[in-house]
Amino acid sequence: MITIIFKYNNEEFKVNATEGETLLECALKNNVPLIGGCGGSGICGSCNVEIDPEYINKIPEPDVNEQDVIEYLPMYKPTTRLACQIKITNDMDGMIVNINN
Question: Which residue intervals of the chain are DSSP H helices?
Fold first, then answer.
């Protein structure tokens, strides 16, 4: 079992995730308030999140399309990612994801 901890507005959502699904899919199936405006195609930026720095190196670097979206977000940081572009792996067990929307 893979556990992901989403944080939003001082609330914590500790959910079970399935390897291979995206963070956005995981959040939506567990009623976590994460917006996915473009349906997971990675073009709108509405599912932007901050990944716990402890886990950022366990996630592949963003591709050029994702990087183009996230670098123009007003709250951009090196740990900013799009939840729809991150596929969950066993290495992410216990990862904290802060929701920006």
Answer: 23-29, 64-70
pLDDT tens-place string over residues 4-37: 999 999 999 999 999 999 999 999 999 999 999 9
Q: What's the pTM?
A: 0.95
Residue type, 42: G
Q: What kind of architecture, by CATH, is found in domain 2-99?
A: Roll (3.10)
Rounded distance, CA 16 to CA 24, Å?
13
d(CA 63, CA 33): 25
Domain boundaries in the chain? 2-99
Place of tokens 């989403």: 6
